[in-house]
From TrEMBL:
Name recorded for this polypeptide: acetate--CoA ligase (ADP-forming)
Species the sequence originates in: Candidatus Methanolliviera hydrocarbonicum
A GO molecular-function descriptor: ATP binding
InterPro entries, alphabetized: Acyl-CoA_Synth/Transferase, CoA-bd, NAD(P)-bd_dom_sf, Succ_CoA_lig_flav_dom, Succinyl-CoA_synth-like
Keywords of this entry: ATP-binding, Ligase, Nucleotide-binding
Its EC number(s): 6.2.1.13
Name of one Pfam family that matches: Succ_CoA_lig
Length: 491
């Protein structure tokens, strides 16, 4: 990245993600208090560093020795997480300054966004931290999270940390309630919530993740800009050549900007049309909604190779869904592929007694006439479908989940749940073989029931992206193609 390049390990943010020791100020053993899970997650998920707990009213929390104050800890502390009310935060900052601690996360809100008194407290903390050369994440934040060392700062009980290549930057705790979903469906490298951006801002986070070898996809949620806008755009341009970047910018309307200011203290003054144009020039994918934000993140992390061009094939169970998917392809800049004679000959024997179009392919009606053969020879049926991805005229494919067969088999053959699960796993492996053809493949759901949930979990554990609707699958696939096109224009 030329003059923009920085070694990740030398970046000041690195110890926020890789602390050797962390002190939790405001730790509690009371399970009804939100702070409880900050400590409980670190212990249960086996954070690789040392944890020190500070609470003047407890000698022991979760079986760990607890200190009355920071000053009572004789060991070196890499990072302090201040999880005390805003009124006590200034004292914690002073203790850190006296002890020479250089990194702090301020969880509490109630500063710049909370009127004159909060603004005065904000200014005093800024003055003191700058004098002490201290770096501050927040206030009004939860994070960081780093799956490579099991480091997590969260108010919610997190079941597991699923490691992967997506790193998230948020300016809100909106992701907090979704953490278990995120770690169930996505592979995550790091998560950072910038909060009110008293010190650390979006430029710092982008600069760090740009050079992080564990981060393959950068996703950023922004409500306002605090850092140097020109530097931000320059890093975006440099980084998008080697890593996809997805940005969701909220606070786009006057009312939205006012709502953002109520909890972050910053007004989003950027002209949205200009910002949108700058992102396109920088080769960045913009998400318009929170659904798109996570949808795009998933397809970029799950897909190794972008589509060669914009020619797409659609396979559906319902003819009506095929029409909806076709409309979505046209609206999102994807062209319906014209499959060749060789593909037609492979698929013809699966057709009903009449000729049907190859794209979109209604394999639901095919199943109606070949259901017995389909169940007894799944491999052959899906091998025939795989011929679509082998067609030279096809660059990518979306397909509706054939999950209704599980309900039919379960109801008619009275198989035990373990047998149905085995059947699901077998079909998931077939989809994996389809994906290994080297062309992007995305699926969309059919029944939305509990049985299908299990199937979706199997598929996404194998990095096969599944979406709730054909429209969302199409938009995600279109984002892959758009990124490829923008990157080619940058060359």
């Amino acid at each position: 990245m030329g003059e923009m390049s920085l070694n990740r390990e030398k970046h000041f943010l690195d110890p926020f993600f890789y602390p050797k020791s962390v002190a939790i100020v405001g730790a509690t053993g009371n399970q009804m208090k939100m702070n409880y899970h900050i400590t409980e997650n670190l212990l249960r998920l086996k954070f690789l560093g040392k944890v020190y707990l500070v609470n003047p009213n407890a000698d022991e929390i979760l079986g760990m020795k607890t200190y009355p104050s920071l000053n009572d800890i004789s060991a070196d502390i890499d990072l302090v997480v201040s999880a005390v009310p805003y009124s006590i935060t200034l004292k914690i900052i002073r203790d850190c300054a006296e002890m020479g601690i250089k990194r702090i996360v301020i969880v509490a809100g109630g500063f710049e966004e909370a009127g004159k008194k909060g603004e005065e407290l904000h200014r005093e903390i800024v003055r003191l931290t700058r004098e002490s050369k201290m770096r501050v994440l927040g206030p009004n934040t939860l994070s960081p999270i780093n799956t490579s060392n099991n480091f997590i700062i969260s108010f919610h009980p997190v079941e597991k940390l699923k490691r992967g290549g997506i790193s998230f930057v948020f300016q809100s705790g909106l992701y907090e309630y979704k953490l278990n979903w995120i770690f169930s469906h996505l592979g995550v490298g790091k998560i950072i919530d910038l909060g009110n951006k008293m010190d650390i801002n979006e430029v710092d986070a982008l600069e760090y993740l740009a050079e992080d070898p564990e981060t393959k996809v950068i996703t950023m949620h922004l409500e306002s800009m605090r850092g140097d806008g020109r530097r931000f755009m320059q890093i975006l341009r440099d980084t998008s050549r080697k890593k996809p970047i997805v940005i969701l910018k909220s606070g786009r309307t006057g009312a939205g900007a006012k709502a953002a200011a109520s909890h972050t203290g910053a007004i989003a003054r950027e002209n949205d049309a200009i910002f949108d144009g700058m992102l396109r020039q920088a080769g960045v994918i913009r998400a318009q909604t929170l659904d798109e934000f996570f949808d795009f993140a998933k397809i970029f992390e799950f897909t190794e190779d972008p589509p060669g061009d914009n020619r797409i094939a659609v396979a559906n169970i319902s003819g009506g869904e095929g029409v909806i998917a076709t409309d979505a392809c046209e609206r999102n800049g994807l062209k319906m592929a014209k499959l060749g004679e060789k593909t037609y000959k492979r698929l013809r024997e699966t057709f009903p007694p009449w000729k049907i179009p190859l794209n979109p392919l209604d394999f639901g009606v095919c199943m109606e006439f070949h259901m017995a053969d389909f169940i007894t020879d799944l491999n052959k049926f899906f091998d025939d479908l795989t011929s679509i991805l082998e067609d030279e005229e096809v660059d990518c494919m979306i397909m509706q989940l054939p999950s209704t067969i599980f309900m039919k088999v379960s109801a008619t053959l009275k198989l035990p749940k373990s047998a149905i699960s085995g059947m699901m796993d077998g079909i998931a492996d077939i989809f994996l073989r389809m994906k290994e053809k080297g062309k992007p493949l995305a699926l969309w759901r059919s029944s939305m029931d509990i049985m299908e949930d299990e199937f979706v979990n199997m598929l996404e554990s194998k990095k096969i992206p599944v979406y709730p609707s054909s429209e969302r699958a199409v938009k995600a696939m279109a984002a892959l193609y758009k990124y490829k096109s923008m990157r080619e224009k940058q060359r």
